[in-house]
UniProtKB/TrEMBL annotation:
Keywords: Glycosyltransferase, Transferase. PANTHER family: PTHR34136, UDP-N-ACETYL-D-MANNOSAMINURONIC ACID TRANSFERASE (PTHR34136:SF1). This is WecB/TagA/CpsF family glycosyltransferase. InterPro entries: WecG_TagA_CpsF. It comes from Rheinheimera tilapiae. It comes from the Bacteria.
Length: 254
């Protein structure tokens, strides 16, 4: 089953625009059929990393789904490509997918998080929000420099768990490269979910809905983690806006 969707280039990456219900139905169908699937939730940071690193751009090009987690990507789709593109936030997609997974009896694994205690808290909260969810594997690996690698023992445990869905929370670009490297060994639906484990565990706070609607979630997160996020935002955000304005001008001056 294939959902109805549109797609357009944002920077140099093909980004899919699809409604949440259609997307979740398509992902569950793939998971039930054990179709190896790589899904990444893109924001400005991810696309600018791809613009600066051709090898990472190839990782995104090999994916099955790149979706707009960041509001500026939705602006690009509408202003440059003429596509109506819903924002698909990671936490919202994970909850919607896990609800369907619980209803279908699908087996879920989570790989990532800052520490085992944080991951346990996140799994506990997720199972509170989604009663009946089968979390059959969880592991918070120790920190590794980019690119991250998986321990052979953990790969074996994931395979033995017969997972249908693997949620990978290593942060961008580690998680996307990890999924790309190991997807052939893990015949399951694999999602890079970024900070979702931190949101579920309470380690980080989500922006209020009104802040999200104003497209100021980036500012809310910056105020929480100024030292970590300031270099990223100052490096990427102005360049993305310049590229967006240039692409809009080229599109409308033809």
């Amino acid at each position: 089953m294939t959902g109805q969707f549109s797609a357009g280039l944002v920077m140099r990456t093909q980004v899919r625009a699809q409604s949440m219900p259609s997307l979740v139905s398509e992902l569950v169908s793939r998971a039930k059929r054990q179709v190896s699937t790589r899904l990444y939730l893109a924001n400005v940071h991810m696309l600018m990393e791809a613009a600066d690193d051709p090898a990472f751009a190839e990782v995104l090009a090999r994916s099955d789904f790149v979706l707009a987690d960041g509001k500026p990507l939705c602006w690009w789709q509408r202003l440059v490509n003429g596509i109506s593109c819903p924002q698909l936030r990671g936490i919202d997609l994970v909850l919607a997918l896990c609800r369907r997974a619980a209803a279908e009896g699908l087996r879920v694994g989570i790989y990532g998080g800052h520490a085992e205690a944080d991951l346990q808290s996140a799994v506990h909260r997720l199972q509170q929000l989604v009663p009946g969810l089968l979390v059959c594997y969880q592991h918070a690996p120790s920190w590794q420099p980019y690119p991250a690698s998986a321990e052979p023992q953990q790969l074996q445990l994931m395979q033995q768990a017969q997972l249908d869905i693997i949620l990978v929370a290593l942060g961008c670009p580690k998680q996307e490269v990890w999924i790309d490297q190991y997807s052939a060994q893990l015949p399951a639906l694999q999602l890079g979910i970024g900070a979702v484990v931190d949101f579920l565990s309470g380690r980080r706070r989500q922006a209020p809905r009104w802040v999200q609607r104003l497209a100021l979630e980036w500012l809310y997160r910056w105020l929480q983690e100024p030292r970590r996020l300031a270099p990223r935002y100052l490096k990427h955000n102005p360049r993305f806006l310049i590229c967006l304005c240039r692409a809009w001008w080229q599109q409308h001056s033809r």
